[in-house]
Structure formats: structure tokens, C-alpha cells
Amino acid sequence: MSANTSRPGPGEWEEAARLLSRTARDLPTGRHDYHRERLMARIEQAQRTQETSPGTAKPRRLRLSSPAIALPALAAAVAAAVIAGTALTGGNGDGPHRLATGPALTTQVGAASPDGVSRLLDQVSLVAAKGDDHPVLKAGQYVYIESKAADTFLKTVDGRSSLASHPLHKRQAWYSPDGTKGWLIDPSVNVSPEGETLSLPDEQGNTPVADLNHPSYDYLAKLPTDPDTLLTRIYKETRGHGNSPDQEAFTTIGDLLIESYPPPALSKALFKAAAKIPGVVTVHDAVDAVGRHGVAVARLDEQSGEREEWIFDKNTHVFLGERSVQVRRAGGLDALIKPGTVLFTNAVLRRAVVDGMKEVPARVG
What we know:
With 365 residues, the chain is α+β, with helices and mostly antiparallel strands. It has helices spanning 10-21, 31-52, 72-84, 117-129, 217-221, 227-237, 245-258, 264-274; strands spanning 112-113, 142-157, 160-175, 182-185, 196-197, 281-287, 293-301, 306-312, 319-326, 342-354. Strand 8 and strand 9 (319-326) form a beta hairpin. The longest helix has 22 residues, at 31-52.
């Protein structure tokens, strides 16, 4: 993103709008602040770099999860800051419910190895292929996903950037098969404690077409289940996104693990496809958001130094959650993010089919 003037040109505006249009109202908790602040910090850094150097700062990849429903209010706020050519500033960095913030989340960086990746993903794919506890989602029903998550984000106040975190808290989401109806309860995102609608069209009257970045169950049910064909499609549809084609493909598959409901045959194909992505490794010990230890399938983004980890139970190979960990020191403003910083952590607690919006399935046992 060029920053050679105080006001961005049309190309810069379009780039900012493109990034913001992918920001999701139903992003995993805390991602709004994380990406908003990082985007604005990178704009500010690019401006300073342009003033002192003929080179242009290359922004770090902005991790935007799926499904993506635009947030007009957020887009307007950040766009205003872009037009002004200044970094977005805030008060204490709290969420809509004054969700308390704390110091950056940290962990011990686990050792990674390329050994055993194919074997582990084969075992995981066999578990995913079992449809005994995976009923088909029918019209009129909703998939219910309950998770807990926390995050570390870049906070800018009065021109000064620092790291802060949102604490672990519960998130509940409901999605219809076609993706046009839904509900979200998440204190880091919602203005109301009762949550907010995810139903389409959005506030601007738009109904996004389902794709890999914002998939519906119906869309996923139509994807190819041959791993090679599926991976080719993922590379094609994500071309030009992220820091590298391989990292973007890995991230796209990972995003589907957190808050979507792929049919068993597709889940199996996704894991088989992941095994074919160069650079995928195993991490012998990784911990999800609620403290469950497991083994992880991971990949390091060489440009950002951030490693994405998919965590599975060591014995059952059931998916537990995902986390992003900084494992290499970066430059510029990203130097604030030291190795061992947990940028995002999530634990999926329940995933079920229910008959009504905001219906919560009964707990078993």
C-alpha cells in the first residue's frame, strides 16, 4: 500500500476498501480490533517509511477468517482514518461491552518437525470421515457452534502502539444451510448482550455469494472431495491473497475448521489436501484456548514469522482448536510482537445441528 501523500489515491482507497470488505461481523472473537489496529498501524508505518526512504513498506498479511460479512460501520471508521492519513486511535482498546484488556498472551514455542505429518493427517482424516455424529444439515435447521477464544492485538492510543489482549470468553454462533440466516453472541463483537443477527442481506443491502472465504453449508456440500481437485480449486480461488500461495491455502483450510460444518467426505478431503501443501509440519505439544494439550499440524508464514497451528487430541485425533503463535522476530512495528506471543487461540467446545435460531443443544453426560 503506497503512502507517498497525505491523502491516499484511488488505488489506496480501493485496496483499503477491499481489505475491509473481507472483515467479518462474525469474525472469531477479537479479530476486529486485531486487524483494524494492524491495518492502521501498517498504514502509519508505510507513511513514515515513505518519508525517510525511497522504498515502500510491505504490509504484513492480515488474517481474515470466514465467513465474511461486511461491517459498514467499521469500514466507515477505518476509511475515514485512511482518508485523513492518520492511524486509528482509541481509548482503552476495550470491546463493545468494555471487555477488559490485559497483557499480550504468551506461550512456549513448541518444536516443529516435518516428520509424521502425512501419517497424522491420515489419522485425522479417518476420524473426520466418520459421519456417526455428523447429521446432515437440512433446510430450516441451523448449525450451532460454541467455542472459547482469546487474542492479542496491536492497540494504538495517541499515536503509540502496544500489545494488549482480550480474555478468554465464550462465543456462540448459528448458521442456516444457505448462509443467509444466522445469529452471533460474542461480547467482544456485539453491542447488545443478546447478540446480533448475521442474516442477509447486510446493512448495505448486499448478499455475498458463498465462496471459500465465506462458505455456507450448501456451498461446502458441493465442493469436490478428491484431494487433488480440491487443492487445485483452493489455490485457484485464493490466488493473489496472503503472503504466499501455500500459506494462503493452508490458512483457508484452517479457517474451515473453526466455524463451519463441512460434510464428513469434504473434511477428509481437506486434511488429505493439507498434507500436499509444502512446508506443513507437526508440533508435538500444542495447547488450545481452554488448556487442552494436543498435537498440532502447523505451517510457518515465512514473511510474518507467524505459525498457524491446528490442534488435535493425541489419542482420538478429534479437532480441538486452533492458535496462531509468533515464532520469529519481525521488523518494523511488528517487532512489538515477540516470539512466543499468542496472536489468536480458539477451542471448539460444541458443534451441533439444531432446529431453531438461538436454540442451544442439550449437553450430553
